[in-house]
Amino acid sequence: MAIRDHFKAVYYDPSLEGLPWGRREIERFLPFNPRPKGREELKEEILSLSPDPIGDGKRVLYLAPHRGSLLKPCPGTKGYSCCGYWVGNVAVGCPMDCTYCILQGYLNEPIITLQLPWGKFFDELRAKARGPRPLRVGTGELSDSLVLEPFLGFVAEAVEFFARFEGAVLELKTKTDRVEGLLPLEHASRTVVAWSLNPPKVVEEQERGTAALMARLKAARLCQQRGYPVAFHFDPLLHYSGWESDYQMLIEELFRWIDPRGVIWISLGTLRFPKGLEKIIRQRFPRSWILSGEFLPGEDGKLRYFKPLRIEIYKKVLSWLREYPLKGFIYLCMEREDVWEAVFGFRPGGTRGLKERLESHTEEFLRKW
């Protein structure tokens, strides 16, 4: 389904009518008959009338002025090493519907919000990115980076901005195959296009509304052929009967389509979720099997697989990846230092150390790419 056909309604904050740039934004959506409505009124309407507010809210787009910062550091989590990523929250919410998605419990309103004006993101980036090495910046934290494109048009503007801006590197993280708008752009290798990957079984049963695995890989190949550095995120890795053969075949298929020498980084992360999300998953996806494993609360309060099981999963996936001539940086997303040592044989030095390693690697990779 085209994204233009996905939304059943578009609303906007009434205050946009009093702003010159706000009126221009409203005009962009005139074909959808956008209507003014307060955020709280809209939120309460969906929560009170819908049997599945989260699902129905995915078909409502809301245009709103954002008074805070659009560029923020990844919040990380206590006791676990974070990669020092920066996040641009231009869009909040996602029309896709993965069973394990943390946004189901993290966001407190069942709508997709476009936070305006997105020019603030570029202004904030100019002010922030003044270090000796490029910041790693992404837009895939609170939404999928490409799922609303080329409908919105933000990505084309962002790619062209980063092509001229040496202070940061943009990562577009997605589960779609919507790369047609990227292919003709001049990107100067300053944009990394990244895919979240899982075996076909997981995609079909747990990632509703996303592109099929083969569609993602074909899209990644097209981007790599156009000179984009590409990246992959095996996150969440899921433990189930037959997971080893499924993930091993996934990696084999990946490198049938992709030149491993052009992969800038790969992250690994096992399934984890905050308390409370389990109830939402069981209500919305009663047939899902992802909660059938044994989960224990971590230092940050999130439920995770037992540590020896996480280490086993990481070691096996890492061994399969190392069968290929990868030059990319492989790292664990939100993991403890002792898990790093068990998997890689070293500790990254916490969030600061991991951030410095990744930024140094990014600078070196792009110099040679």
Provide structural commentary.
The strands form 4 sheets. Strands 4-5-9-10-11-13-14-18 form an 8-stranded mixed beta sheet. A 5-stranded mixed beta sheet has the order 2-1-3-8-6, with helices on one face. Helix content is 38%, strand content 20%. It is built from 14 helices and 18 strands. Strand 1, helix 2 (20-28) and strand 2 (35-36) form a beta-alpha-beta unit. The mean pLDDT is 95. Helix 10 (243-257) packs parallel to helix 12 (307-321) and helix 12 (307-321) packs across helix 13 (337-344). It has helices at residues 3-6, 20-28, 39-49, 53-57, 103-106, 119-128, 154-164, 200-206, 213-225, 243-257, 277-284, 307-321, 337-344, 350-368, and strands at residues 9-12, 35-36, 60-65, 71-73, 86-88, 91-92, 97-98, 112-116, 135-138, 168-174, 191-196, 207-208, 230-237, 263-270, 272-273, 295-297, 303-305, 329-332. It has a single domain (66-368), classed as pyruvate-formate lyase- activating enzyme. The two termini are 36 Å apart. By secondary structure, the chain is of the alpha/beta class.
Please outline the helices and strands.
Blueprint: H1 3-6, E1 9-12, H2 20-28, E2 35-36, H3 39-49, H4 53-57, E3 60-65, E4 71-73, E5 86-88, E6 91-92, E7 97-98, H5 103-106, E8 112-116, H6 119-128, E9 135-138, H7 154-164, E10 168-174, E11 191-196, H8 200-206, E12 207-208, H9 213-225, E13 230-237, H10 243-257, E14 263-270, E15 272-273, H11 277-284, E16 295-297, E17 303-305, H12 307-321, E18 329-332, H13 337-344, H14 350-368
Parallel strand pairs: 1-2, 1-3, 3-8, 5-9, 9-10, 10-11, 11-13, 13-14, 14-18
Antiparallel strand pairs: 4-5, 6-8, 7-12, 15-17, 16-17
